[in-house]
């Protein structure tokens, strides 16, 4: 069963004295029950705006959305009890302890003091926060903060969980821990909509991915489907000397089906080639003839990075230093 449906969502912001921004420009989404959908897109793509609309925090200018058959825009009061949200606008009280924060959320959901405290204890254990539970949140590390915030979203045992960039800014170990927790939740039947700028995260966690850019979905499918959709294999070389970059680009352009992509330092070059083994042989022969030393050379299947680059012309994590 499709649990979350968004159709043709539009939202335009018109900041004073600036051009209008089409944060959502006809966005469509469908998330089956008990699955995890990744909304993958760069900074400013419209991920947070989508989450805000679906969690009743923002009204779109037009479009429709339902969760479990309930109209999000017409009946927000029926949506709030069945959803949990954790994300960039984390709502923890800095001065309360980890335990107190969770207990407070329980009271807000009218759990009653005994049930609320029991749920807080359960979540503290689940999230491995036992040692930190009696310390104020203001002393928590980034990873602990994310965990307490996610725990807060789970107090009411929501059917649907919205996670807005749950691992942005976390160190690799905390990120893996967060992935485990998210996977366990989906295993228990929770439907999850997760936003991320990390291709690897979408690849690892999700049942399906919607790639979004400029407020709309530009591609959709499992990560394998997305990779297959751009086709071909990649021939990739790494130069010893950046000074050889221009010549190397010419060589790769001859065997590839499109212009090669080049790293900022000019030393890593990649090109899409239909017959990669033959292309690689030709490239190696050519470099040998020209006397250009190579650090590394090989062929590989496309990654989600290639998908993103092919679809949008830019990388997902190109940081344009947009103010958050
Ligand atoms: N309250 C707002 N006022 C003006 N512009 C906004 C507001 N919220 C978001 N935007 C703009 O809408 C676009 C989409 O933002 P957002 O949904 O936050 O993207 P993402 O979460 O993918 O980074 C961006 O260009 C952003 O600057
Ligand atoms: Mg965002």
What would you say this structure looks like, in words?
With 324 residues, the chain is of the alpha/beta class. 36% of the residues lie in helices and 27% in strands. It contains 11 helices and 14 strands. Strands 6-7-8-3-9-10 form a 6-stranded mixed β-sheet, with helices on both faces. A 4-stranded antiparallel β-sheet has the order 2-1-4-5. Strands 12-13-11-14 form a 4-stranded antiparallel β-sheet, with helices on one face. The longest helix is centred in the middle third of the chain and has 16 residues, at 172-187. The two termini are 35 Å apart. Mean pLDDT is 90; it is low at 319-324. Bound molecules: adenosine-5'-diphosphate and magnesium ion.
Mean pLDDT: 90
Q: DSSP strand (E) fraction?
A: 25-35%
Major beta sheet summary: 6 strands, mixed
- Portion in helices: 25-40%
| CATH fold descriptor of the largest domain | Rossmann fold
Would you count the extended β strands for me? 14
Give the end-to-end Cα distance, rounded to a whole number of Å: 35 Å
- How many independent structural domains? 2
Uncertain spans:
319-324
Major sheet: arrangement of strands: 6-7-8-3-9-10
Envelope shape: elongated
Fourth-level CATH superfamily of the largest domain = P-loop containing nucleotide triphosphate hydrolases
GO molecular function: ATP binding; ATP hydrolysis activity
Domain ABC transporter: 4-239
Protein name: Daunorubicin/doxorubicin resistance ABC transporter ATP-binding protein DrrA
Family: Belongs to the ABC transporter superfamily. Drug exporter-1 (DrugE1) (TC 3.A.1.105) family.
